[in-house]
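Fig. S4 source data, part A: sequence.
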Amino acid sequence: SESTPTPSSGINAEYGDENQADETYSLTTVKSIAGAVEQLVNFFGMQPCERTERVAEDKTAHTLLLAGQHKDGVECLIKTRIVFDGVVNMKISARSQNADLNDLLVSSI
């Protein structure tokens, strides 16, 4: 069986900063960090890592880690930093060996 990459599996270090794309968004239709996490997991269809799909109710900031494979077999990681201060704001980063895929992932929100 295929294993899903994780941030600690070496993929994070292997791809490095030069193989990363970043973007920042305000998620105006989302009312909570937990709501943002649920929508992101469903939207990307990737596996949450290190139990980051669980959000404590009193948190005003959270990091969600997702890992998976694109349909062409490229392993990819997504890291989101979600902050709630009356509105949900998110910084999303994608890493893989394919720069075009990284750009596509972060711009697809």
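Fig. S4 source data, part B ends here. The CA atoms of residues 40 and 79 lie 11 Å apart.
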